[in-house]
Amino acid sequence: MTPEIENAFTAIRGEHGADSVERVERMLEPSGAGERHPLQHGAKWILPGLSPTPWHDPRGHPELTPVVEALEAAHPAIKEELAAAWAEHREAFSDYEHYLTRQEDWQALYLYRDGGLVGESAGTVPTAYKVLDEFAVGTGKICPLLESHFSTLLPGAAIAPHCDLWNFSINLHLAVDIPDGCGITVAGETRSWVEGKCLLFDYSFEHEARNDGELPRTCLLVDLWHPETTIPERQALTVLISEIRRLMADG
């Protein structure tokens, strides 16, 4: 670990206790977190002690329930504003750049990125922006290492099976505009989005999605802290991953 990470971890231990970042430190050991589920094979980091559960009940975690309920309640306005943005402000959307690839048939409109809200989106999709700000950003539930965006799969688009980088954040989908012929598979279990409702899953497990229909499919994706992580662990992970990214950029 770099001096910056060591100093940050020492400060967190001083505030929260000697064992407060123990799981993060175990994750960094050569043996990693020990055994992992076979369908988490592609994830780089597995924080030990988190339930190895691919699909989560969106209302199963009290910390996250307010985010779910607020997004679902706002769905009619969110869908209307998204449709207007798609029709009138297509320049606000861009090819989605996953850490593995870039896809022209996967379009994204960002609300939160690089550790902060994307101010330009406040005027384009104001309801989603306001709900995200109030219930996820302002409450510290969003993972600042990742993002929130409208994810639009064009007809015929497919997201190949893959694992994301870690298990200490969790992916929330609000189904905004869902035509027939769309599905998502996580750890071998396929589900369909239900318009106006949320899905919640651990994307360290292998997952894929597709739009076999004739119209675009759009969900609002929000990367939230895994509810089984602690406040000091979230602080340590934010410092750790930010420093790793800085070193990779400098290198």
The helix-and-strand class reads alpha+beta
Q: Rounded to an integer, what's the Rg over CA atoms?
A: 18 Å
Instruction: Please tell me the overall pLDDT.
Output: 94
Q: What count of helical segments does DSSP give? A: 7
CATH superfamily of the largest domain: B-lactam Antibiotic, Isopenicillin N Synthase, Chain
Count structural domains.
2
The dominant shape is: globular
Number of strands: 12
What is the straight-line distance between the termini? 16 Å
Strand content: 25-35%
Helical amount: 25-40%
Residue ranges: pLDDT <50 for 5 or more in a row? none
CATH architecture annotation of the largest domain: Sandwich
Reported for the largest beta sheet, the result is: 8 strands, antiparallel
The CATH topology annotation of the largest domain reads as: Jelly Rolls
CATH class of the largest domain, named Mainly Beta
Order of helices and strands: HHEHHEEEHHEEEEEEEEH
